[in-house]
Input
Amino acid sequence: MVKIVIVHDRIRYEEKALQKAGFDLGADVSLVDIKNSFIDITEGDVNPEVLKADVILQRCVGHYRALYLTAILESMGIPVINSFQTTLICGDKLLTTLTLRRAGIPTPRTCIAFTRDGALKALSKVGYPAVFKPVIGSWGRLVSLVKDEETAKVVIEHREHLYPLYQIYYIQEYVNKPGRDIRCFVVGDEVIAAIYRYAAPGEWRSNTALGGRAVKMDITEELKELSLKAARAVGAHIVGVDCLEGKNGLLVHELNSVTEFRNAAPATGVDIAKRIVEYAISLVKR
Amino acid sequence: MVKIVIVHDRIRYEEKALQKAGFDLGADVSLVDIKNSFIDITEGDVNPEVLKADVILQRCVGHYRALYLTAILESMGIPVINSFQTTLICGDKLLTTLTLRRAGIPTPRTCIAFTRDGALKALSKVGYPAVFKPVIGSWGRLVSLVKDEETAKVVIEHREHLYPLYQIYYIQEYVNKPGRDIRCFVVGDEVIAAIYRYAAPGEWRSNTALGGRAVKMDITEELKELSLKAARAVGAHIVGVDCLEGKNGLLVHELNSVTEFRNAAPATGVDIAKRIVEYAISLVKR
Amino acid sequence: MVKIVIVHDRIRYEEKALQKAGFDLGADVSLVDIKNSFIDITEGDVNPEVLKADVILQRCVGHYRALYLTAILESMGIPVINSFQTTLICGDKLLTTLTLRRAGIPTPRTCIAFTRDGALKALSKVGYPAVFKPVIGSWGRLVSLVKDEETAKVVIEHREHLYPLYQIYYIQEYVNKPGRDIRCFVVGDEVIAAIYRYAAPGEWRSNTALGGRAVKMDITEELKELSLKAARAVGAHIVGVDCLEGKNGLLVHELNSVTEFRNAAPATGVDIAKRIVEYAISLVKR
Amino acid sequence: MVKIVIVHDRIRYEEKALQKAGFDLGADVSLVDIKNSFIDITEGDVNPEVLKADVILQRCVGHYRALYLTAILESMGIPVINSFQTTLICGDKLLTTLTLRRAGIPTPRTCIAFTRDGALKALSKVGYPAVFKPVIGSWGRLVSLVKDEETAKVVIEHREHLYPLYQIYYIQEYVNKPGRDIRCFVVGDEVIAAIYRYAAPGEWRSNTALGGRAVKMDITEELKELSLKAARAVGAHIVGVDCLEGKNGLLVHELNSVTEFRNAAPATGVDIAKRIVEYAISLVKR
Output
C-alpha cells in the first residue's frame, strides 16, 4: 500500500480533501502536524510517520516552514511534492520571473531595485500605474498598485520600516486585465482545471483570500501550453499557475507550489484532491 | 585586459584593497554601486559596466542584495563570484548544515523546530547550554547562548515578535571552544590563510564585528582538508570557512560567501585581496 | 434610567457579564464596538449611542485603542471609567512606578536605561536575577527573567530589533515570591475581592493569560490600605492592583485600568460585574 | 551662577549653540549624555550633574527618551524645559489636536479610526486627498498623502505590519498650502522668529529633514496670537509651532517640544540659542 504523508501546520479544506481522496483510492494517507515536534538534522531524526512515507505532500501554510521542511526531508532522501528547488522558486517572485524569462515564457515586464532612489528610477521607466510586490509573500499581501510617484514614495517609506527583504523592490508593469486573472492547475503533465478569479468589488487584486470569486474557465491551447511549460521550468509536480490576459496573449506571473483549491474544485467540478493523490500514487509506482 | 566588476553597496577596506590589487595586477577593476540604479530583468538592462565584465565580484554587504543581484546577473549569463547557489547556501545556516552533513563534513549537532513547543523539545534533547541562531543573519547578530529553559522561552517570545523567518528555530549544541573559533580563507583550491578569532572580554561570540581579535593560525592538514571539502560542497570559488575546535576534532559551522578580511590580512601577512584578484583573473583566462 | 455605554473592540466574558449586570440593575447598558466606525474630532462626531451615555465603561483590549478613545471621549466632555490620566499611568509601567513612589507606596526597586550599556550597568547594580519589562504591554508579554549578564545581552539585542519604545529599558529587582502574586480589585473606595495568582508549572509569571491559577485570598488590612492608596494615586475608579509578597511586606507593582475578572469572579464568589455597574450607576446619580 | 544641564542623546548644532550661548551669558551649561548611564528611580539616583541643575533643557532626539527622562526628572523635583505634560502632548499628534481644539485654536479637520474599515469610512468623509499621519513620529516620517481609496488601502495594509501604535489611524484634511508651511518659535511669552518652510522639489512635505528650505517670515499679528495661544494650551516654555495657510486663515497643526533651529537661526538672523538660554536663566531667577 502506498504511504503518503501530508505535512502541514494547519488543517484546511484541502488537507481534509486530500486525506479523503487517499482513503477512496486505497492509499495510506496520514497527516503530520509539524508544529508539535522538531527534527534532529544531525541524526536524521524526525516524526516516524514521515520516515515511512513513500512520498510527502508538503502542505504547510507558512512559506518558510514549507521551504525549510522540504529542504530537510529531501536531504534525508525522502521525495517531497514539490521539491525544494520548486518551492524556492515559486515562493519567490523574483526567482520566478527570472526562471520564466529564461524559459521564454511571456511574463509581465519587471524591474528590480535595492533602494528608494533605484526604485523611483525603475518606476519612471516602467511607467505608472505599476505594481509593487514583496518578493516573498502570499495571498496578495502588500501587493500594491502604485499610481504615481507620490504613492510610490509612500509605499517605499513604509517598506523601509519592515524586514530587509522588503527592501528588494520588485516592480512590475500593471497589466490592464479585465478585472480578473487566471489560475490554472497543473498535475504532472496535465492541466486539470482552470478558473477565472474575479476581483472583489473595490479591490483590484483577484486573490480569493481578498474576496476574489472563482468561475470555471475552458482550458485553451494557449493556456495549456504555457502552464505546462511554466510548470516544467520550475520543475513542479503539482502547481497553480497564475496568468494575466495581456494585449498580445497570456502572461504567466506567479506560480504556487502549495496551491489552495477549495474554491476551484466546486467551480470547475474537477475533483482536484483526487487528481493530486492519483498523481502521487503513480509517482511512487513508477 | 581582464575586466572585473565589483558590485557593492558600501565601500569598505576590502573593496578598496581589491581595486588596488587589480591595478597592481594589470586588470581593469571597476566598482559599481548598486544603490544608484535598477535592473530591468525583462530587457536585461543593467549598468553598462556590469555588462562588459568578464567576471563579477559580488561584494554587497546586504545579504538579500547580494543574493538577488547574483541571481539576476547569473540569469543574464554573467559569471559571478560566488554563484547564486553558493550565496544561497552560505547565507543560510540551515542550508549550510544540510549541505555539510550530506558531504560528510563534521558540523555541530543541530535541530530545527517551527514553533515554541517544538523548540523547547529540541532544546531538551540537545541539552543546555545551546546556541540559538537565526537562519539568515551576519556578524553573530541575534546568535544567542541559551543556558536553560527559562532563557530559551525569553528568546523564543522575542523571536515571535519578529519577521516569520525568525520563527524557524535553528538550535545547535554549544561547542565548549577555548574562547575562540577559526576562520580560514579558501581561494579556488587553496587555503591561503587562517586565523583564530578570540572573543572580546565579556562576549562568548568571536565575531570580529563583536570585538573578536584576529591571531594568525598555522594551517594544519585537518583544517586544509576540511575547508576545501566544505568549499567544494557549497560550490564556492572564494569563501571564509568558520570552524570550532570540538572534542574529536574540528567542526565546520558556517561559511561566508562575501567574506571580510580587513583583520585577517594584517594578522596573517597574506595579501588576501591580491590572491582573490589573481584567482578571478585566472578564472577568466581558463 | 442611567445610560451606560461599554466601548470595546472584542466581546469577552467581562463585557457580557457587565451587560447582564446592567440589565439586572435596571440600567440601560449598550455595547459599542469601536472597530466599525470612526470619530470626527473636529466636529465631535461619534457613534450616537456614545453621545447619549451618562458614563462610558472603557473596555477595549488594545491598549492604544483604550488610551486614545478615552482621550477623545473625555475631550468631548463625556465621563469615562477610567480617565485618560489613569489609563495613561496604569498602561505604562514606568509612569506607574513613578506614581507609586511619589505616593510613598512600596514598590519593587526599579532602574531605567536607554541603551544597552546603560541597561547592563543598571542590571549590575540591581543584581541578578532581575526582571526586564516592556513599559507598555499586557498579559506578561515579553516580561523576561534575566539570570545573568549573558542573558541580559540576549534580551537587549532582541529588543533592539523592535519598535523604539522597547529600548526604554525598565529593569526591576526580582521579588522571590512564593510562586504567586496577588491581584486585588478596587471599585471606588472599596476593595471588593482579591486572589492569589499561582504561576503555571514551568512558568514564573503568574498572569492568568499564561496559565496562572486564581485562588481566593482574604483581604488583609495591609492589602486593603495599599490597594486603595494605589488606586487613589493613579486616580482610578475601578482598577486591578497587582502586589508581590516582599520580605518586608507587600509591594505594589502594576495596576490595570481595564481589568479582566473572568477567573477572579468564580474563585472569590464575588459578582465583580455587578459591583462595577453599581458603582457606575452611583457615580452618575451622585 | 545659574546651572543649566542639557540632557541629550546626540550632540547636534543646537546643543553646541546652546552651550556656547550659556558661556556667553555667564551661565554654567553642561551637556549630559543619557546614553552612558542609568537612573535608579527607587533611590532617585542619577548622573550627579543632573541633580545640581537649576533647570534642565531636554534635548534628546529620541521621542521616548525625551518623554520618559522628563517624567523621571520631574518626579525627582527637577524643573525640565519642557514639562512631561507638554512633551506628552506635543509628541503626539492626536493629543495635540484635541488640545488645540479644546483651546479654540483653528486646526485642520481630523478624524480618528482604529481599524482599516473605520479608516476608509473616515477618509470618505474627509475626502481625498487626505493626509495620514502616525500619531507619534518626527520629521514627517510616514506622513502620507493619500489621493484615493486605493492608495489608502495600500497605506493601511502596510501599517498593519507595524507596531500597534501605527494602527491608530489619524486622518487629516489636506490643506492646499502654497508649497510651504510656517514654523514659528515661541520662547516664554514671545514669538522670537518665524520661517516659511518650502518643500523640496518632488516632495509635498516641507520638513527640513526632507529637504525643506527655510525662508524668513515676518511675524504677523495673527501668527503671534495663535502661536502664543497654542504654546499656552500645551503649557510649553519653548516650542516650535507649525502652521498651515488655510482658506480662512492660519491653522496650527503640530507643535515641537524639542525644536531644531539650525536652519531657522541663519535664515532669520535671530540668535535662537541665546534667546532660549536667556529664558532658562530668567526662569531660574524668577
Q: What stands out?
A: DSSP finds ten helices and 14 strands in chain B. Chain B has a mean pLDDT of 95. Chain B touches chain A through 51 residues (CB under 8 Å).
